[in-house]
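step: validate -> pass
step: tokenize input -> pass
step: predict -> running
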Amino acid sequence: MYITDSDNSRIQKYSKNASVGETVAGEGSGIAGVGAGFLSYPYDVAIDLNQKIFVVDSSNHRIQLWTGGSSVGTTISGTTDVVGNSANTLNIPRRIAYNWITHEIYISDTRNYRIMYYPVGVLNGTVVAGGNGQGLNNNQLGVQHSLYHDAVTNSLFISQCDNTNNIIQWSIGASNWTLIAGYLNGAISSSSSGFSCARDVTLDPMGNIYVVDRDNRRVQFFSIGRSNGTTIAGINGISGVNASLLNIPISVVLDTQLNLYVSDSANHRIQKFMRY
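step: predict -> pass
step: emit ->
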């Protein structure tokens, strides 16, 4: 298991059944920086089959690639500590979607309100979603907190927070998105079909959708084609430290048995929930 330990500016790896992690990217003592051996508030991580580590180095406005055993990273998109909206700059990148087949990456360039696409070895990205300013129109994006590339439909599922609070699907090559869950007007809601900051989204092999509903302290399950969700982790609107509660959950992943692993941010822990 690889975990972005954001406030310690590092990536931690936990081997199976281990209770102590090892730092595999960033400075192990938690020091932030701009050099090749440092990270500054990393926001997301992806691992390929060769254990290459792709880190969204958010406050440095770049994506860093760390190979196994290396003490330094290489910038593969963005320009270190430079904010911009050109093809080779980013503004607070937050999440990465990795295509395991083609090795391409997609980056949520949050404050530019766009998703950038980078083929292997290319430093200049291409806008594949958004790029038309912040807004609620179906050719615009709000503050994206997560994205998931679905190889079956060749589309991006994007979770949005702040003034948008929804899950949208943007097919690669399309000029606009389709609403999947939440409301078109971005309304905050604790209903079964709404969110209060849709913070992360992932899909299982059947196409069912799992959403971290951060401020409602829950994970919602949406059967394929359904806009009403079922709470499968946490209790709606209730924070806590016991095993059934969450406090500011921010991301979710599934293992091969479809068990859920939820980063329970304010409780400083990872919680495992058995398959729904």
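step: describe -> The chain has a mean pLDDT of 96.
step: cleanup -> pass
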